[in-house]
Amino acid sequence: MGLLDELKQEAQELKAREEEGPDPAQANVNADTDAEQARRMLGPKMKALYNYFKEFNEHLNVVSPDVSGDYLLEGLGTLTNLRQGDYKLATDDPKSIQKFTFHWSCSGSGRQEFKVTNPILAEKHREALWNLNLRFNKRDLQSGAGAVFVVEAFVPVSFEFEADPVKNVISLKLKNLGALGTVNHFYPPDKINVELMDELAKCVLRRPNRFDELNGEKMSDTLRQRIRENLEIERERRDTELHSPGGGAQKSSVTQRLKGSLFRRKSGAK
Length: 270
Description:
This protein is of the alpha+beta class. It is built from seven helices and seven strands, in the order ααβββαββββαααα.
């Protein structure tokens, strides 16, 4: 077989493979069709979520339930007895809801001061407070001996829902719900139902709920809080041993308070 014949045969084989392969234009059409189907499935679910929290928001602002809680600032202390209020619902387009936010605030009177005697830890705490969108001032101590943080008794909390037709899910971003930080969840349309909405509403009101269970988590709120408190005690102990002249002999007020709360809970348990 001559060279020309070889090239001709190779060209024919390549052409045959191209004809057998998927049509890019058709693939784009299929992708557009899938995205449109996802939008049709996600649209009613987003509307149901929006209507639920719209009504929930209206009731909360009429009833003004007495709900308060504490927020642990890891390594610093605790913002205590912050009262919830100022519930709001926001969306760019109520007629075609692709994204909306339900948010509120937890606030108290005055400010709280936290002293950090290690400059490296002080900088880490500054970054953490900044990333959490908390309101605070930092006052450096003399000779680089650390800093004092003055933190306002204010924590913003929010649920952010957004439809994602590419992945065919509804994303839920929880900010500062019960504890400082952000948690993301993703739900296919068939997982969005009234039970999920009710459990989320209970979370807002800080009532016992099954939200974690619905998300496949088996740890209870009580156990999770105990773990947080134990971690805080251990962190305080290490900081005291590393940075206090008296080694581990001195105990911070936070450690004493947390140990007291654990003791009371344990002795009162049945």
